[in-house]
Amino acid sequence: MPEPDSDTILQAIRQGQSLAGWDLRHGDFSGRDLQNADFAGALLDSARFDGAILDGANFRGALLQETVFLQASLKNAKFSLARAALARFDEADLAGADLADADFTGAVFIKAKLAGAVLNRTVLAEARLDHADCAGVRVDGTDLRKAVLENGIWREAAGEYADLSGAWLDRADFSGANLPRLSLYGASAARSLWRQALLVNSRAGERANFAGADFSEADLSDSSWQDVDCPGGLFVHGVLTRMRLAQSDCGGADLSRVRARRADFSGGVFRKAKLVRADLFEATWSGCAIGGADFSEANCYAAQFLGAKADAGTIFRGANLKKAQFAFGNGRAS
Predict the structure, then answer these.
(1) CB 254 within 8 A of CB 233
(2) What's the DSSP call for residue 161?
(3) DSSP-assigned letters across all residues of 210-248
(4) How many other C-beta atoms are found inside a 10 Å radius of the C-beta of residue 294?
């Protein structure tokens, strides 16, 4: 249909008319009150909605490439199945919005509010979500590969199979998140917060960086992390049961009182790590560098330290070493 003029568009919106199929590309709706407007299926590429009020608006299946929503109010808006690559939502309020099954590749949500939004199966690859408030979002199968989430709030986010491979998560807060089977290959998450998060069966590798990250009381059971960097990380009171944390750098990390039964730390670096009162029942430390590590009062029952590299500063004072196997590569433990 021909491109409608602004009066025709606004009249259609006021009358609750569907704009499906309307060609609204490059239109300027900035500052307009468009609450509950029905833009489902509309062509809106490169349109502008700066500062517009769009609470409850319907953009389901709309074409929104490079569309701009700077500081717009989009509370409870619907974007499912929309195609919004490179769209901009800087400082927009999308609290409670539905973005499920939509494509936001490369979109920008800097300082946006997405608390309680639904992001199930949403494509947010290479998107910018730094400083965004995403507390309580749903992320089942969400694609966040190479996205920027630095300093973002993701507390109590929930969903299985979210993919954060190659993403930037430095200083992001995932405390209390429920994210089983999360993928973190090659991610940068220095000083990020994961306190009391549920991360069972998560996967990480390719030198993912968790330097100084806080996993206190988090559950990492059955996770497979290999070749990752966790120097100075905090795992106090965490659950690492059957976790594979092999060939990783955990120098100076605090694993005091962790439950790491049958965990595999083979080939890792744990120099000066704290494992005081840790439960390391049948854990594997083969080939690990444990110089200066403190295993005081730890449960090392039937643990394996074959080929581990200890030194005079390695401490096992008061540890349960019954049936533990030792064959240190150099030095002696005290």
Answers:
(1) yes
(2) S
(3) -TT-B-TT-B-TT-EEES-B-TT-B-TT-B-TT-EEET-
(4) 22
How far lies 300's CA from each of 22, 262, 318, in Å? 69, 10, 11
Residue 69, token pair as written in the block: 């929503």
**Separation CA 326–CA 116 (nearest Å):** 51
Which has the closest alpha carbon to 73: 91, 59, 88? 91
Residues 6+ apart with CB under 8 A from 37: 13, 19, 54, 57, 58
**Would you state the structure tokens that stand for residue 297, as one six-digit string?**
């009062």
pTM over 0.85: yes
- CB contact set of 67 (below 8 Å; sequence gap of 6+): 44, 45, 46, 47, 48, 49, 84, 87, 88
pLDDT in tens, the chain (334 residues): 456 777 788 888 878 888 888 999 999 999 999 999 999 999 999 999 999 999 999 999 999 999 999 999 999 999 999 999 999 999 999 999 999 999 999 999 999 999 999 999 999 999 999 999 999 999 999 999 999 999 999 999 999 999 999 999 999 999 999 999 999 999 999 999 999 999 999 999 999 999 999 999 999 999 999 999 999 999 999 999 999 999 999 999 999 999 999 999 999 999 999 999 999 999 999 999 999 999 999 999 999 999 999 999 999 999 999 999 998 765 444 3
Q: Kindly give the residue spans of alpha helices, DSSP state H, lying in the chain.
A: 6-14
CB-CB neighbours of 229 under 10 Å: 20
